[in-house]
């Protein structure tokens, strides 16, 4: 059980590092978008590669931080069933959700996008816009990063569930335990 707990902590640490790193792209996105607007309306100039850059950074950011969002429990769930449940019931719901929905989804995304991404890398694909950004293949590669990070976080969620079901909640770090406060009327 301690080996499972160590694996869960390592996956959580990886998604925390990736999430805390790539969330800073939001600042860069705003700055690039602002500069594109300033350049267009103040200087009557347009750089097509910059117009490609900020939506691409947006795509990279959101695909890279998806596992972090799952780690932080920022994903959508049906709280009318989940919130009032005991920790044991939450663990069972998470374990079933990971096995039935999350892992098959991650597999489908990986399997169906692998050839697409591989072809893009092989072609060193760039923007379809004349004068646009080179390196579209980098952006497309983040589809695989997305699938891998959410699958890894799914493994961490499953391990947390297994530890709780086995009565070893003490091995789950405090910041990764189920912590919901019921709303007071």
Automatic annotation (TrEMBL):
UniProt keywords (A-Z) are: Cell inner membrane, Cell membrane, Membrane, Transmembrane, Transmembrane helix, Transport
Q: Which domain of life is it from?
A: Bacteria
Is this entry keyworded Kinase?
A: no
Coiled-coil regions listed:
none
Q: What is its main location?
A: membrane
Positions of the Tripartite ATP-independent periplasmic transporters DctQ component domain: 29-162
The portions of this protein that span the membrane are 21-38, 53-71, 92-117, 137-159
The family database entries (PANTHER family) matched by this protein are listed as: 2,3-DIKETO-L-GULONATE TRAP TRANSPORTER SMALL PERMEASE PROTEIN YIAM (PTHR35011), SLL1102 PROTEIN (PTHR35011:SF4)
Self-association and partners: The complex comprises the extracytoplasmic solute receptor protein and the two transmembrane proteins.
Q: What is this protein's function per UniProt?
A: Part of the tripartite ATP-independent periplasmic (TRAP) transport system.
Name of the protein in question: TRAP transporter small permease protein
Species per Swiss-Prot/TrEMBL record:
Roseinatronobacter domitianus
């Amino acid at each position: 059980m301690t080996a499972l707990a160590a694996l869960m902590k390592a996956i959580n640490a990886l998604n925390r590092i990736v999430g805390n790193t790539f969330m800073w792209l939001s600042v860069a996105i705003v700055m690039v978008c602002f500069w594109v607007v300033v350049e267009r309306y103040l200087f009557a100039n347009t750089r097509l590669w910059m117009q490609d850059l900020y939506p691409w950074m947006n795509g990279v950011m959101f695909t890279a931080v998806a596992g972090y969002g799952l780690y932080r429990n920022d994903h959508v769930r049906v709280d009318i069933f989940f919130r009032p449940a005991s920790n044991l019931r939450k663990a069972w719901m998470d374990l079933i959700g990971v096995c039935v929905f999350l892992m098959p989804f991650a597999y489908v995304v990986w399997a169906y996008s692998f050839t697409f991404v591989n072809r893009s890398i092989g072609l060193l694909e760039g923007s379809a816009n004349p004068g646009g950004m080179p390196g579209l293949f980098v952006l497309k590669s983040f589809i695989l990063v997305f699938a891998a990070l959410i699958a890894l976080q799914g493994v961490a969620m499953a391990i947390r569930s297994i530890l709780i079901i086995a009565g070893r909640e003490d091995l789950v770090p405090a910041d990764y335990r189920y912590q919901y406060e019921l709303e007071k009327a």
